[in-house]
Amino acid sequence: MYIVTAKEMYDIDHFAMTEIGLDGKLLMENAGRAVADRVTAIVKDTDKICVLAGSGNNGGDGFVIARTLLDKGYAVQVLQVVANDKILGDAYYHKRLFERCGGIISLFDGKCTSMITSNNVIIDAIIGIGSKGILREPLASLVHYINREAKKVISVDIPSGLPADEGKGEFISIQADYTFVIGAPKVSAFLNHTSPYYGKWEPVSIGLPSRAFKTNTSRFVWGIDDVRNSLPDRKPDDHKGEHGKGLVIGGSKEMPGALAMSLKASLRAGAGLITGATTEGVIRMLSANCIEATYKELSETNGFLDNRTDVSLEGYHAVAIGMGMGRRTCTGDLVRSLVHTAECPIVIDADGLYHIKEDLLDIENRRYPTVITPHPGEMAMLLGITVNELLLEPFRYSREFAIKNNSYVVLKGMITIITSPEGEQVVNMSGNPGLAKGGSGDVLTGIILAMIMQGQTIFQALCNACYIHGRSADELISEKHSYHDLLASDVIDGLAKVFRIIS
Ligand SMILES: NC(=O)C1=CN([C@@H]2O[C@H](COP(=O)(O)OP(=O)(O)OC[C@H]3O[C@@H](n4cnc5c(N)ncnc54)[C@H](OP(=O)(O)O)[C@@H]3O)[C@@H](O)[C@H]2O)[C@@H](O)CC1
Ligand SMILES: Nc1ncnc2c1ncn2[C@@H]1O[C@H](COP(=O)(O)OP(=O)(O)O)[C@@H](O)[C@H]1O
Ligand SMILES: [K+]
């Protein structure tokens, strides 16, 4: 499933019409019919439906929806929210078809009308991706009224007034219960501050060719089919060396468990051999608990790793660093020296990110892949901006950082955005609020480390790891756990089921 900006969607429409020859009226017919089909699945036969139609093509979709529902026998009427002379082109054509089929159109008189309250379903086709700036009057008041009074609101393509793109914090928008997005979801469906306005959303297909999407966008949602297509099988004659020897560096006297989570998760996710490199005290605590891992003792100052041991990375296929190591200066020296010398992929997480903040040039200059896995607080710290600024434009900030610093960025959150150094972006939607707990990120880092060593591309490895991590939490919630009680260690146990589902 592709994710588009408003401009990309217009380019895709344009491509479909000019390069392929699809007619705009036909696309509008397809859009309206596809939405009407979905609407019939969520309304009752006895529901009274009011379609609000605006001036652009979104309003045009509204006329097709109204005609299709009328033909199916629903009690439906249209409230046209703009003057007659504003309905032009393809939208006018479909308005005429609706009228000729016996459809009734009322004109919005600027007052908040009883049609909003006397119908139990409102279909919002006021404005789509053509929305510019903040909604003007009288539509702004109408939208406030709908949000207050309407019983069930179904938006067409996007809740009216909501920006399609990132970077816009001020708007007046319909609060939808459902949104049927046309062709592909828009970027705002994936942002913390705009996604709630969509209610439940799903895409409807209107016959736009996949070539049109491939040519015009490089952003998409990673799904189970993508995992199945890219995750290498384990062969009958495999030996452990073929699944990678990974090193996990982290832990301190204050946070020993973080390392344990990463080690266990990495082993459960298929790593061949995993070594935990940490302080003597942490090894003592973990070794009986995580017996499949091997351990390497590093030097320490008062229970925190320092840079006095000469850590050899020879023979390791990938390294993960940072979890539970704390923010002491002596530990930072260790991180920076390993980032500088590691001749293999390195995954930097948690406090490791804090230590590299001032040395991003070292990351940029690395000849081997670098992966950073920040949550929004860590990403904002690396960028020197606030979390609010970041979350307003997470796609842009991730992309700029990844390209500038020649690194893979896994920006974690309710949805996770994975960006390659070339700027390709994928969204992972698996996972749930049960993961909003200490340790979830350490588990993800362990899975990432394992995936990187399994023979996929680094980008595929990151996408697969995020999907599998979130899916484990989703499976656990659907079975025996709740958002409240789910623990990071449960997510490790849940991997067994996810791998069975995938294979
Ligand atoms: N082939 C295709 O293209 C297909 C497109 N499809 C559909 O078309 C939709 C995009 O259509 P679109 O480009 O016509 O824009 P749309 O969202 O209807 O709004 C434009 C109108 O809004 C108005 N307006 C804007 N800002 C405003 C404000 N702040 N406050 C008040 N009014 C404001 C603006 O008025 P103006 O400012 O010009 O006076 C203009 O008249 C898309 O979301 C999808 O549903 C599908 O049918 C599939 C095929
Ligand atoms: N509400 C949520 N929905 C989906 N995934 C979530 C949610 N909250 C957190 N996660 C996931 O849980 C993990 C948390 O990582 P992080 O914040 O680094 O945790 P920690 O540092 O405590 O280990 C990330 O993979 C994130 O995407
Ligand atoms: K709309």
UniProtKB/TrEMBL annotation:
User: Which GO-annotated molecular functions does the record name?
Assistant: ADP-dependent NAD(P)H-hydrate dehydratase activity; ATP binding; metal ion binding; NAD(P)HX epimerase activity
Residues covered by the YjeF N-terminal domain = 9-214
Give the reactions, separated by semicolons, that this protein catalyses: (6R)-NADHX = (6S)-NADHX; (6S)-NADPHX + ADP = AMP + phosphate + NADPH + H(+); (6S)-NADHX + ADP = AMP + phosphate + NADH + H(+); (6R)-NADPHX = (6S)-NADPHX
Question: Does the record carry Nucleotide-binding as a key word?
Answer: yes
Task: Name the InterPro entries for this protein.
Answer: Carbohydrate_kinase_pred_CS (IPR017953), CARKD (IPR000631), Nnr (IPR030677), Ribokinase-like (IPR029056), YjeF_N_dom (IPR004443), YjeF_N_dom_sf (IPR036652)
**Location of the YjeF C-terminal domain:** 223-502
Sites where the protein binds AMP? K412, G413, M414, I415, T416, G441
Tell me which residues bind (6S)-NADPHX. Answer: 57-61, 128-134, 157, 258, 324, 375, 442
| Keyword field contains Cell inner membrane | no
- The entry's keywords: ATP-binding, Isomerase, Lyase, Metal-binding, Multifunctional enzyme, NAD, NADP, Nucleotide-binding, Potassium
**Annotated binding of K(+), by residue:** N58, D124, S160
What's the family?
A: Belongs to the NnrD/CARKD family. In the N-terminal section; belongs to the NnrE/AIBP family.
* HAMAP family documented for this protein: NADHX_dehydratase, NADHX_epimerase
Recorded protein name is Bifunctional NAD(P)H-hydrate repair enzyme
Origin organism of this chain?
Virgibacillus salarius
